[in-house]
Structures are given as structure tokens and as C-alpha cells.
Amino acid sequence: MQSFLELGVSEPIVKQLKEQAITEPTPVQIQAIPKLLAGKDVMAQAQTGTGKTFAFLLPILEKIDANVEAIQALVLSPTRELALQISNELEKLLITKPEVNSLAVYGGQDIEAQLKKLQKQVHIIVATPGRLLDHQRRGTVDLSDVSMFVLDEADQMLHMGFLPEVEAIEGLLKEERQTMLFSATMPKEVRTLANQYLHKPEYVTAKGKNVTLDEVKQMVIETTDREKQQKLTEVLHQFHPFLAIIFCRTKRRASKLNAALQGMGFLSDELHGDLSQSKREKVMQRFRDMKIQYLVATDVAARGLDVEGVTHVFNYDIPQDSETYIHRIGRTGRAGGTGIAVTFAAPKDKQYLRLIERGIQKEIPRKEWPDKE
């Protein structure tokens, strides 16, 4: 196993990582850091939890020049939660470089406060696309000197309809720059984007630890759409989850199911893209504090969600590919615990079930319901 020093990370930063109990690089860091330090463009397939944030932050910090009065690095993220997360990690590392200034730029935050911070020299910006373009239109952000550009969670960026904003931002950057694209999945649209923005990229693939097979007991309950809600409530009564996430395909279905569960007296709430930022944060806090037991969520809202104590994941609506399935059920069985993942499958879901089983190279046991054991 290579050390951070061997990868080319400087001693003060290695020391700071140790303070955070980070002593060994992850596979994505081992692959990406030397390539990025060498100035190469990188296209990385890496899920949340693989250490991808440090894979791009460490090379950026090594290469940033505090004497150059310009924004030199831009990290673009699809959600405010992720932008905040990246920004917090960066702030901890910046203890080693107090002369370097960073700023998180996202919606739902006081724009005047952001403007104030932009009056001093900022070297690194972590931003969501919409708010960054707001600043650009006001003339408060100049991106013409950006030499390092990170597109994080590129698949979610496209899924959430940010392509026009991403293209507008990319058009403001100079051509001679280093571009890093990170994505949990690599659909055709992400590859097209990479071909447009990256120059002779190096490819990096790092799968997360395969939680699906080891720590999570999986099962499929066959149902019909009409019976699904009834079966879910029976399963909840029988399994008594400590904390559970229930995944729905759309915001509307999440909202409808949550209302039904609340009507039956379950301690539940919904999490999806239609909620305001402050509402989403409140819901997440209540879930972490165990004031609610069931979180009815869409995939976009649950990206990067890491809550201790989640004992069950329910796929109320089946995911349409194995990577989404792995991502969803990876919300449980964490930190050495075990988890249970239940997928409800209607006859029309058979093709997706086959896809998932092929992807995880395992047949998921079917469970009779009502339980005949």
C-alpha cells in the first residue's frame, strides 16, 4: 500500500490528514492523485464513500499558488449539501495553507455575505451551478484564470437538468486548464460530456467496498402495484426497523407514500428535490436525531446520505440499474453493522430485477409474503 507521501502529497498536508485519522489512501486516491499532480485530465468512476473528495482536493492544494491573485480552482457540485461537505473538508485542509482562501457558493445562502467574502482574494471556489452563474452575471466572480476545474457527481448534474448551466460555466473557462470529472455511474451522456471537456483523459475506476454481498441481507417481495403499499406497511410492522430509508422513483410518489404512512401513524418524513434547502436540512436533522424513523426519499436526495444506525432499506420502487441498487442498499450495513434490504417487485419489474442480479452477480432470494417461515 502506497502512502500519501509516496503519492506526492506534501508533509504538512499528510500531517493534517493524520489529525483527521486519515492515514492510508483509498484506491481512487492512489490512482488519481499522481495523475492529477502530473497535470493530466482525469475521468473517474467513483461512488460516494470511496474517498473521491480528497482525490481531487489534495492535488488542487498542492498546485494552488497563494501569490497569484485569482480564482485558480473551481469545484462544481449538483447540490448544496455536497458543496458544503466538500467545502468543510477543504477548510480542514487549509489549516496547512492559511494564505489560501476558499469560498462555498450555493443557493439558499445570503448572497450579500457571499459578495462580502468575494471582496477578498479567493483562490478556490466550491459551487452549485445556478448560484455561480448568478455571481458571474453580477460581475462578482471572474473565472477566466481557473486552471483546475472539477465536475463532481457528473451523472447527478445531468440527472437534475444542470447541463445548460454546466455548459455556460465551461464556456467561461480558459481552454488550457486541467479538468477532473467524477461520477458514480458512466452513462452515455456523461461520456459525451467528458469527450467535450477533457483533453486526453486518464481513466480511473474505484468501486466502493461491495457492501451488497457482505453486510446486507437482501430479499425480494413479489407484489402488484395495487398491493404494494399494504405489503410495505405489513413488512414495517413485522420488521420493526430502528431507522429505515424507503426509496421511491419520483418526488410525487415519495410525497404520496409519506402522507399515507403519516396517516397510519408512522413517524415518517419525505426527502426530495422539491423541498426547500432549509426543509431538507431539517428533515435530515430529525432523521439523524431519530425523531423520525422512516425517511421516504428519491435517489437524488439520498446521494451521499450517510446516517449511522440505518437498519433497513426498502426499495418501494425498484431501481432501474445495479449501480443505483448498490448505492441505495449501501445506506445500511455500515460501520461494521448488518442491514436488511427489501425490494418490492411487481411483474413489470422483472427486467430490472434481472439487470440488478446480473450486476451484483447474485440471485436475490424471493420471500413469500405474508411470511410463511
Automatic annotation (TrEMBL):
Q: Where is this motif: Q motif?
A: 2-30
The residues covered by the Helicase ATP-binding domain are 33-204
- Ranges where the DEAD-box RNA helicase Q domain occurs: 2-30
Taxonomically, which superkingdom? Answer: Bacteria
Listed EC numbers: 3.6.4.13
Domain named Helicase C-terminal: residues: 235-373
Q: Which GO terms describe its cellular component?
A: cytosol; ribosome
GO BP annotations listed: response to cold
Q: What is this protein called?
A: RNA helicase
Which organism encodes this protein? Answer: Radiobacillus deserti
